[in-house]
Design brief:
- The chain has 305 residues and is an all-alpha fold.
- The protein contains 15 helices and no strands.
- The longest helix has 51 residues.
Length: 305
């Protein structure tokens, strides 16, 4: 055996040990980073809960960063009753649920056509839908405001008879701004579905509608669940369109109600913290219900290619 071969064989354990050590150090660093990120994410929520459980009389004397002497749910009860949050919750539901359903339905229509059919304007159409997300909302607020004042609606969709100052108007604008992102995500996911499935469907004489409704949508369930979770959070937490396109206070969603509460009880931060935590409950419930599908949808890129 030559000296070079002996040296190579002697160096193999060292290289393997170094590689395992680097992997171990990388894993520890990733865990430390994730723990730090979780702490930074949870700390504001924990502090808000801590403030909401303390009475205002105690924090005004001892400060917000002090040891508690009395904890209660009085701030949550007062926030619910004094700000009339039940009505604003209903407004948010009437805006969020239709907006999410219509967005996913329209986006799945367009994505199916873009993913399964080849035509001349396939790629430009996808770019057009995606480019809509690059447009800042503030840029179009003036022409959109004037447009909403000119578009009539029947009385069962708007008590004012216009798109302006109506829940329907908020649904329409949220669908318009979220549609491009959903088309982009769903079309990319549908392109990863095996072509053999659709070839077998064509051999069996399956019409296009059945290919979409009975074949494609069930396979897109993880992606739809992930998008539904994100859309619910985005539409529910929207504040810009609510204060711009709604004039009547009792028609605004829960985010606008929090702003009104802050203006009415600006000194009582304990009450505002309690109201903010109450407003965050629906999005948390949606995430917990769709948690498995949401995580599966986020990991699609790691398992499909």
């Amino acid at each position: 055996m030559s000296a070079a071969a002996t040296l190579d064989r002697a160096s193999e354990p060292r290289c393997g040990t170094r590689g395992r050590r680097r992997i171990r150090v990388g894993g520890v660093a990733a865990q430390v980073f994730m723990i730090a990120a979780c702490v930074l994410w949870i700390l504001p929520l924990a502090f808000a809960l801590y403030v909401a459980l303390r009475p205002y009389s105690e924090t005004s004397i001892r400060g917000y960063v002090s040891w508690p002497h009395h904890l209660s749910l009085a701030n949550f009860r007062d926030a619910w009753t004094q700000s009339d949050m039940g009505r604003f919750f209903l407004n948010s539901v009437l805006i969020t649920v239709p907006a999410v359903i219509i967005t996913l339905l329209l986006a799945s229509f367009v994505a199916f056509v873009l993913a399964r059919f080849s035509f001349k304007f396939n790629l430009p159409l996808l770019i057009l839908f995606t480019a809509g997300n690059l447009l800042p909302q503030q840029v179009i607020i003036t022409p959109l405001y004037r447009m909403y004042l000119q578009i009539p609606l029947p009385s069962f969709l708007s008590s004012s008879g216009l798109m302006y100052n109506s829940l329907t108007g908020l649904v329409v604008i949220n669908v318009s701004f979220q549609l491009g992102f959903c088309v982009f995500v769903l079309s990319n996911f549908m392109k990863t579905l095996p072509d053999e499935i659709y070839e077998a469907a064509l051999v069996d004489g399956t019409p296009v509608w059945s290919q979409y409704w009975r074949l494609t949508l069930p396979l897109c369930r993880p992606a739809l669940a992930a998008l539904a979770t994100l859309l619910t959070t985005w539409v529910y937490n929207d504040f810009f369109w609510a204060i711009t396109l709604i004039q009547t206070g009792d028609k605004r969603p829960i985010t606008a109600a929090l702003a009104n509460l802050q203006g009415q009880f600006v000194a009582n931060q304990n009450l505002i913290a309690a109201a903010a935590l109450i407003a965050a409950i629906p999005t948390l419930v949606v995430y917990l219900v769709l948690q498995r599908q949401f995580i599966a949808g986020l990991s699609l890129g790691a398992t499909k290619g």
